[in-house]
Amino acid sequence: MSEQLLFLDREAVLTCLAHVDVCAETARVLRRHAEGRVALPPEGYLPWTNGEGAYCRSLAMLGAVEDDDGPPLRGIKIINAATSNPSHGRERAAGLAMLFDPDTARPRVLAEAGWLSATRTAAYTMVSLRHLGPEQWDAATFIGCGMLARVHVGLLVATFPRTTRVHLHDTDPRRAEDLAGWIRERHPHVTVRVEPGARQAVAAAPVVVTTTTADRGYLPAAWLTPGTFVAHVSLADLLPDAFLTAQAVFVDDVALVADNPRRVLGRMMREGQITDSVPKGRAHGHDPTGRPLDGTLGQVLIGERPAVRPTGSHVISNPFGMAVLDVGLLGAVYEAAVRRGLGRTLTLY
Predict the structure, then answer these.
(1) Model confidence over 67-123: pLDDT tens digits?
(2) Quick check: 65 and 331 in contact, CB under 8 A?
(3) Residue 263: pLDDT band with limits 50, 70, 90
(4) DSSP string, 85-100
């Protein structure tokens, strides 16, 4: 008996994504998560330093999402990254994602995960902005101008067509100029400005998205004007006082945050500066004197926690990245591939 699976390269993934409402799919899985209808095992994490002295890591992220009319979607994303890749013209992260057959447990589909992962991250940002962002805005700032920022900008303009201005900053001005050129070519109605410094970029728009590889904080609360929404997508851009003075802080999964000291918010929870409301034993940092989290985005979507938009201060959305979002999105991509006859069949044996 032979074993086969469907392989989707990036071109096939992109074609399928064009037929998927990625924000709706992301919101659906977030609601499932808030309702306790997902499985989210601890992620595998393997770090190392390459020959250039750059940080590298491999993440193995399993997840399952319950379906209303069938067995749960089960799968895994393996996403690897090296911080030195962009300097060599490579995307920082790349990997593979799989879905498993519910009866045989065999891999059913194998897909290029770099663009898929970036799309699910951008979709999470759009859903959070829709529910937690300012009431009125037409400009956004992106700190860090690699592939993740490019996917964000494309989805931002599609999701919020009233966006008229985009401000960019990157420690490598060439990356910022490259992204600016791409925006001007693809979205000529959007005015683009490359800012010389991070502080100027943050002050330029009421929506700030960090898509960097920074491992040390640099962005204090003082840079954030009242009414600013921050999508803290990357690891460590915000300094602790930005969290402590925020009007509200929302995450994707509280236990993921508390168990991850590599990110600033995870460290703050372990130190008791930020507290959570998950059941005892699932997370660290139960100091009642700390600043409490305001909940998860999924809880907002199901009405369990109130949405908070920035008015007198700033609101932070800080997702850590849930495998169930990749699994859910890959499920939708797989359905689109089957309907359109896309992908290649691989014979394993």
Answers:
(1) 888 889 999 999 999 989 988 889 889 999 999 999 999 999 999 999 999 999 999
(2) yes
(3) confident
(4) TGGGTS-SEEEEEEEE
pLDDT tens-place string over residues 137-191: 999 999 999 999 999 999 999 999 999 999 999 999 999 999 999 999 999 999 9
Instruction: Identify any residues that bridge with 145 across adjacent strands, giving them in sequence order.
Output: none
Which pair of tokens denotes residue 241? 């006082």
Tokens for 129, please give them.
């902005």
**By the 8 A CB rule, do 76 and 323 touch?**
yes
As a whole number of angstroms, the distance between CA 277 and CA 269 comes to 11
Query: Is 110:7 a contact under the CB 8 Å cutoff?
Result: yes
Q: Please report which residue ranges of 271-322 form alpha helices under DSSP H.
A: 297-301
CA distance 328 to 239: 32
| Residue from 98, 7, 28 nearest 60 by CA | 98
| Mean pLDDT of the residues in the chain | 93
Tokens of 195: 């800012």
In this structure, what token pair is assigned to residue 339?
A: 């309907």
